[in-house]
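Two proteins were folded this term; both appear here.
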Amino acid sequence: MTPDETVVLARYVRALCPQQKFDEYTPDAWHDVLGGYPLAAARAAAAAVAGRQPFVSPAEIIDEIRKQRDARADSFQGPGLPAEIPDADPDDVPAYLAALRAQRTRAADGFELKPRKVATLIAGVGREVPPEITEVKRPGPLGIDCPNCGAAIGRPCRTPGGSERAPHAARVGRKDADAEKAEAERRRAASARFLARQQAEGRLLGDGVIDFEGGAP
């Protein structure tokens, strides 16, 4: 807002609030506070404030400008309002976000948003997908088909009976496969030690059945 426009705003507010006191220095003081705002936005804000109370201050005008900008930015794609697709490639995330921010700023400033033509919107349909996108694989053991049980990518491995189980060794890689093998060996050794201890204590009956009551065979 220029100094001359601030004079216009001061006269407008005086017309809205005839009981409010103004002098020849008022426009200069108001320009120091409101110079960074457009005249149209300040006039609309002053009218809104004057509709609620008999006096209007520069601080109240600024607060109302911010409220009106926020309201327009939040509802620029609401019911009955023209939707504008950001003019940027959605695959270019920084450019798309910049276009979206610019669009919201224009909406907040009160600029009319124009719907883009259908031909523009579908211009990128059917274009070739870059190989670096198509070749991306899901990380982790579920990122490949399981050669043991045939589980597809993203699906868990299964036992012969159909129950879910931890990924097979061929699916988790050499390091994890070694860990799985070592765990199996540890469990077998623990079972062997348990059976040997039971035999030493004389608690095994025929066919390897344990006598938990501790009685004699």
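Next, the second protein.
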Amino acid sequence: MNIKEFAEVTGLSAHTLRYYEKIGLLKNVQRSSSGHRFYTGKDAEWIGFILRLKETGMALEAILQYAQLREQGASTAPLRQAMLEEHQANLKAYIARQQQHMAVLEHKIWLYKNQKVG
């Protein structure tokens, strides 16, 4: 698919896709005979994973580090696993804090609904 179609599929702008290619997050993007970018299903899967990492709070620098390790092949699998495990632990802690915040909000709303707020 061309960059316009890929942008629609991924929800990213063409500018962002070109930036990701420039900084090395998207590697080996195929080109048509006329030089236009051509994206594959594998590219879409990779972008989906990148977006998931971003949405769960992983910094772009860490995603780049992960991508660089991924590019080096299977020998870096333990390092990538460790990165994901660390991110998972951070995400779990973040979710636990958010659940505490939610509980306080729910209690406050309950107080308002029951007119027990001064």
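The chain has a mean pLDDT of 94. The chain has one domain: 3-113. These notes refer to the second protein only.
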